[in-house]
Design brief:
Elements (H helix, E strand, L loop, with lengths): L7 E2 L4 E6 L2 E6 L1 H7 L2 E5 L6 E2 L4 E7 L3 E5 L4 E6 L2 H4 L3 H4 L8 E5 L11 H7 L1
Length: 124
Amino acid sequence: MNVPENLKYSNDHEWVRVEGDVAYVGVTDFAQSQLGDIVFVEIETEGEEVAQNEEFGTIEAVKTVSSLMMPVSGEVLEVNEALEDSPESVNSDPYGEGWMIKISIEDASQLDALLSAEQYKAIL
């Protein structure tokens, strides 16, 4: 299971990569492997403030639909438009091409409550 050391993780299996005062968010390798073949990602929260632990979109696999939960509060600045044509990139490259949203971080202290790679591996 791929769990990059430079990311923070939520109990809901989302990852956060912080770059200054913005962050990229996606689902973990574990999450995509549990979901199976991803066929659709729906995110309609661009430009909106989304609170920590609230839904920012949904991800649809062949057999299930799952909510995408916000790991930290912030404004959704950008949605990965490439997922519209290639949702399978979440399966093939969850930490790269499969990123989902770019956010502005509202409260950086919320990052402290997220899991390190070691802590995340321990819950898997």
